[in-house]
From TrEMBL:
Top-level taxonomy: Eukaryota, Metazoa, Ecdysozoa, Nematoda, Chromadorea
Keyword field contains Signal: yes
Organism in which the protein naturally occurs: Caenorhabditis angaria
UniProtKB keywords: Signal
Secretion signal span: 1-20
Listed name of the protein: Flagella basal body P-ring formation protein FlgA
Length: 251
């Protein structure tokens, strides 16, 4: 096999891998403390020198004289300024400012073999923050602090060192292929995407939606495809093939 053909085959496999059908669902927010630095003006540099290098090194903005704090806000484009860090030697001023990003749950839809006897999907990290448009960074929520319901404060460094998902696809090392035997005609496999949505891979064409309450209400629901995303209300569950699907994820 020539080198050119080998390269083309590798490219084809990589392209197929990247073009996975992904389900993306927002499930909360991530707050990152991001550093922002700017070069200070000559007048501001002189003002800092006048108050003394030690006192100007690291303080809250409200501790500075009004003329200095006003210049700082203007220099940093009126961003939310709390603690500041001044490097007089480099004539720069930096702040840490909170930025809010969408937290998403992402799952690969997967695919069936042509005879429907095998189903496989790419098992990948669950939670991702969209730090740039269309560019998602893996979030390990165990390393983050929960601020309130569905909001976490994370370190940017933790995200930047994780896996990245962008338009070109996701790196293969960020997960693994999981294969399931789907030869049973009643085969069904469910993954919860968000508190109320589920990805269903199944061979059956009809399911039963069950509503909890004083009286159980059951209705038949057609399954329009072998891989679908379904929504369940808090008081509902669903019987599909050989499984029961219900909302179990909590914010």
């Amino acid at each position: 096999m020539s080198r050119t053909i080998l390269i083309l085959l590798i490219f084809l496999v990589f392209s197929i891998f990247c073009r996975r059908n992904l389900y993306i669902e927002p499930v909360g927010k991530v707050e990152l403390m991001r550093n922002y630095c700017a070069k200070m003006s000559k007048d501001l540099y002189i003002s800092f020198n006048n108050v003394g290098p030690n006192s100007a090194y690291q303080k809250r903005i409200t501790d500075f004289p009004t003329e200095i704090s006003t210049e700082i806000r203007k220099l940093l484009e009126n961003q939310e300024v709390q603690d500041i860090f001044v490097d007089l030697k480099a004539q720069t001023i930096c702040i840490s400012t909170p930025k809010i990003y969408s937290l998403n749950r992402i799952e690969d839809a997967g695919k069936f073999s042509s005879d429907l006897k095998n189903y496989e999907f790419f098992k990948m990290p669950k939670f991702w923050a969209e730090l740039e448009t269309g560019k998602f960074y893996n979030v390990n929520l165990e390393n983050c602090e929960k601020l309130e319901s569905a909001t976490w404060q994370c370190r940017e460094l933790d995200l930047r060192q994780g896996c990245i998902l962008k338009s070109e696809g996701i790196e293969e090392h960020c997960g693994e292929i999981e294969k399931l035997d789907s030869s049973d005609k009643n085969f069904a496999f469910s993954r919860q995407l968000s508190p109320n949505t589920h990805i269903i891979a199944t061979r059956v064409q009809m399911a039963s939606r069950i509503k909890n309450g004083n009286i159980f209400k059951i209705e038949n629901v057609p399954i329009l495809g072998n891989i679908v995303k379904m929504h369940l209300e808090e008081d509902q569950m669903m019987s599909i093939g050989n499984i029961i699907v219900k909302n179990e994820m909590k914010q």
